Description:
The chain has 254 residues and is α/β, with parallel strands linked by helices.
Amino acid sequence: SDKDTLTLNYQPKFSFATGQIVGMEALARWPHPELGMISPLQFTGIAEKTLLINPYTKWLLRKAIKQLASWRNQGYPIALALNFSMKNFTDPSVIETLFGLLKEFNVPPELLEIEITESALSTNLSAVADILRYLQEKRIRIAIDDFGTGLSSLNYLFELPVDVLKVDKIFVQSMTTNSAAEAILRSAVTLGHELNLEVVAEGVETEEQYNLLKKIGCDTGQGYFIARPMPEELATAWLESKKSHLIFSKTGVS
Ligand code: G
Ligand code: MN
């Protein structure tokens, strides 16, 4: 079936302070884009960013939470981030399914993080806020994804319950050559900490970016410098190889 061709990849999230792996982000992948009617590039972009699109939402949720439980049972008590789309909030049974799965696989809700992109939030903010508040009451963490690239982004920080600020990779990719990008990142870290949020830098590709982000006090990061998104088996093997700490050397990660 179609479901067999849709799969999840996992990208690690690490702590700048300790070098430890603190979580994974699940990213949906479509290995046979030529089967789709939409252009492969376009579809890949959508499927990759938006984990939970109909009609695969519940199937993907089950896959992701089962994986989280499996890692937890193997001794990796990491968190898992899922990208939610606006559509998921219009279907209450998706939220029901989510809590059902946490219970079925005996996963504490605080290990689950829901990432919302700012553009996906731009309509119906109060309805989204209600659902996010409910999720947060149940101890699921809420992340604002791609921060800094959406429209009127700052108002989300006081209108929505937020735990995590994921700063968009465009700033990280320019920060070592563009002083404005670096200033924006510094400000995002200050702002996030002022609001008691975890600040995540996306798209960390070089050691130079890594060192600068660590220096400005960014909490966590993701990016090719540490690891690319990996299929399930590779991600598990990678976790196994990084069981204790990550040690950084001149050549990268050892
Ligand atoms: O919107 P969101 O931040 O969830 O999207 C994450 C996307 O960024 C994924 O498609 C992932 O493959 C990509 N990505 C992850 N790390 C890097 C990186 O270091 N550089 C670039 N260019 N893309 C990355
Ligand atoms: Mn994301």
